[in-house]
Design a protein that fits this description.
Shape: elongated
Distance between the termini: 50 Å
Number of helices: 16
Mean pLDDT: 78
Strand content: 5-15%
Helix content: 40-55%
Strand order of the largest sheet: 10-12-13-15-14
Low-confidence stretches: 1-16, 302-308, 536-548, 580-587
Structural class: alpha+beta
Length: about 625
């Protein structure tokens, strides 16, 4: 028997065939191959990457050590006139950096951090750097590039005497105290020449009362050095046919006074800058050590080549990188396995929930493989079961809610007859019959709603004349409208047709007409109107739009009291009435409009309501038309 059931089940037919690209077996093979390829590629990448990082770190450390060595030796040359006492400084640099540092002047070795007796140092053709404080490498010491390539520590004749330095320092401290009292942040900075300057925070205004011109004016010794520099710069500019300038302490300049000018042309900025740089270099040359060549190598090298060897931490880092690749490979394999098993676990849990009575159990469907199709089939089964269960519960609830009042009335009248309180006359029989008819009407409505909710509402579709349907509906409700003093008006194109169930369509339109008559006062009008309803281009989701056919629009409007805006969204709700008292004298069972919506939706159409309080209401039915003939 199980074999027959499996053969007849829809999910086992040709629709179960999974495309090759979504096959679970193919995915397993692809995952295995991908993990293998990725592990090999990741191993190579991590090892190469880690090695490259380690090499860059070693090179970065060497570069930092070289820069430090260069800076220390430039500073030494800026403060000394020769290299006679540089040996201890070179030895300390070799000890702290771990490199061999050699300082040479042509063929003569000035200092060696790791000398070896009997093994003279062999210099390479190109030194690591040239130590010249008057021509500093701007890439190693960018601060010197702003001062014409001269290291700021070269002061020469601009060094202040102790007395001048003490005097200016006291004045600078007084200025700082004044600025702080005015609420400004300030501090004293002493330059290489011993001249103090006052620094304030960026953007802060300096109180003019705190300024001291003596801090910016040259001292006698500085003025003498500036005069010498002016002569050097003016001679340089004169050789170029340009007028002279006056150089200031900060390295800037200003045009000489008019009376001292000659007929020569004013000096361009570039020429002045070049002459100032050459003049300062010529003036400071006697105060610095001569240029020397710097060679940096590994400690054991007897030549000036740098040998790069990975340190122990970097070797350990490479080993950890290889181990990390192995760990990631295992983790990726486990993750892929978990992802393949996870849908089966979700499906199992959902089945267990359904077994326990949870009809809302669903499974998330991802992908398009065999497991995804099984999950989709399970969701369809669960959804169908939930619909049936909801329809059953709604039916029981609606019956209990709506049948209570008529049954209570019938029971009350019969008990009154049994007790002899009310005689069993024709009036009583008519009242009881009216309640029984109402019960039958409610039961029929509930049955139709239950069938529509379950998707089992039977429809016998045929091509109908919309004008005939509206005319028959108006004729059937004519006596009731006449008794209520309401006029029925029908306006429809006699050639307009629609594919629909004649009984169900008349039932839907009849419910709207009955509802309109009930809420229209005497002297009012109920209009039944039908017209073509062409589909909106590109609009999907409607039956007419999806099929590309012209539709039909049926309107039932009245001149009644209308519906309040806050009640309009609820008119199609089951058992809803505008009268909060739910009186049957002014309202029906509350199922009429719900049945209309279900009937029209069963035909693939839609229903909507528009109303203006005090003016009337309009209910619009939209049904798909006949398919367009093939071209």
């Amino acid at each position: 028997m199980s074999r027959d059931v499996r053969r007849d089940h829809p999910s086992t037919r040709s629709g179960l065939a999974v495309p090759l690209g979504r096959s679970l077996l193919l995915r397993l093979l692809a995952v295995a191959a991908l993990v293998s390829v990725c592990s090999i590629a990741a191993t190579a990448w991590v090892v190469v990457r880690t090695t490259a990082v380690a090499i860059r770190q070693e090179q970065g450390k060497d570069l930092a050590d070289d820069t430090k060595t260069y800076d220390v030796l430039i500073g030494y040359a800026a403060r000394h006139r020769n290299w006679d006492q540089v040996g201890p400084t070179v030895a300390e640099l070799g000890r702290t950096t771990g490199h061999r540092i050699v300082l040479r002047d042509g063929d003569r070795t000035l200092a060696d951090s790791a000398p070896a007796p009997g093994h003279p140092y062999v210099a390479s053709p190109k030194p690591t750097a040239v130590i010249d404080p008057l021509s500093v490498d701007p890439q190693r010491l960018p601060a010197a590039a702003r001062d014409g390539g001269i290291d700021p520590r070269v002061v020469g004749p601009y060094r202040l005497s102790d007395s001048d330095r003490t005097r200016l320092l006291g004045t600078a401290r007084d200025v700082v105290a004044c600025l702080r009292a005015a609420g400004a942040e300030a501090r004293v900075v002493v330059g290489p020449s011993g001249r103090p300057t006052v620094r304030t925070a960026a953007g802060q205004r300096v109180d003019p009362r705190c300024e001291e011109s003596v801090l910016n004016d040259p001292m006698p010794s500085e003025r003498k050095a500036l005069d010498t520099l002016d002569n050097l710069v003016d001679n340089c500019l004169a050789r170029r046919g340009l007028s002279g300038v006056n150089v200031l302490l900060d390295g800037s300049w200003q045009v000489a006074r008019a009376e001292s000018r000659t007929s020569t042309a004013p000096a361009p900025e570039k020429d002045v800058r070049d002459c100032v740089a050459s003049g300062r270099a010529e003036q400071l040359q006697p105060y610095v050590a001569p240029a020397a060549q710097l060679y940096v190598s590994s400690p054991g090298d007897r030549t000036a080549t740098t040998f790069l060897d990975l340190s122990a931490p970097n070797k350990l880092r490479i080993a950890w990188g290889a181990a990390l690749v192995l760990l990631v490979t295992v983790a990726v394999t486990a993750f892929a396995g978990i992802r393949l098993v996870r849908p089966l676990r979700r499906l199992t849990l959902a089945a267990q929930r359904m077994e326990a009575g949870d009809v809302s159990a669903r499974v998330e469907v991802t992908g398009g493989d065999e497991i995804a199709r099984l999950s989709a089939a399970f969701n369809a089964m669960s959804r169908r079961r939930e619909q049936l269960e909801s329809a059953r519960k709604a039916m029981v609830s609606d019956v209990a809610h709506e049948l209570r009042t008529p049954l209570s009335n019938i029971r009350g009248w019969l008990e009154a007859v049994e007790d002899g309180i009310v005689p069993p006359d024709e009036k009583l029989v008519a009242s009881v019959l009216e309640e029984a008819v109402l019960l039958q009407h409610v039961i029929d409505d509930l049955r139709d709603l239950s069938a529509a909710d379950a998707g089992e509402l039977p429809l016998t579709t045929e091509t109908l004349s919309v004008a005939d349907v509206l005319a028959q509906t108006a004729q059937g409700h004519g006596p009731r409208a006449e008794a209520a003093g309401v006029r029925l008006v029908v306006a429809a194109d006699p050639d307009l047709t629609v594919p629909a169930d004649p009984v169900r369509l008349r039932q839907a339109v009849g419910n709207l007409v009955s509802n309109a008559i009930r809420h229209t006062p005497p002297g009012g009008t109920v209009r039944l109107k039908a017209a073509g309803d062409p589909p909106v281009p590109g609009q999907a989701g409607t039956a007419a739009g999806a099929a590309g056919t012209a539709g039909v629009r049926i309107e039932v409007s009245d001149t009644g009291s209308g519906i309040a805006p806050e009640d309009l969204p609820h008119v199609f709700d089951r058992f809803w009435r505008a009268e909060k008292s739910r009186s049957r004298q002014t309202g029906g069972s509350g199922l009429g409009l719900s049945i209309v919506r279900k009937l029209i939706e069963a035909h693939g159409g839609t229903v909507e309501a528009h109303s203006t309080p005090g003016t009337g209401s309009t209910f619009t039915l939209r049904l798909p038309g006949l398919p367009s003939p093939p071209r």
